[in-house]
Amino acid sequence: MLARLQSLSTSVVSQAKLVSSKTIYYSKVVGELSKQVYLKENLQPPSVNDFQTVYTKLYKRALGFATKPKSSLEFLKTLGKNDLVKYGSYGVQLAGLYSLGEIIGRRKVVGYTNYAAHH
Prior knowledge:
Blueprint: H1 2-15, H2 21-40, H3 48-67, H4 69-77, H5 81-106
Helix pairs in contact: 1-2, 3-4
């Protein structure tokens, strides 16, 4: 599977008309390095059972917090400083990823095009 992904990515990159030779070279280097890391670390994608386990636990925990708000408040009161810093950094990372997705989707760093002003 990794070889197919690598050959697909290499063919897509090599077929692009505006791609320089350095870009092709470095993409091949990154592809080879990622292949070596994948094989040396014995990595594999998570199984369907792993996804079901994780999301079932998350759903049950979220449902418990939604149905018992007092226990949710007590849980928040027991959080320490290190927990707050950890969860705050997770929030900042999520906000950054969301913002990056918005920038990629709009293809602009700031704002949407105002189509109403043209009419």
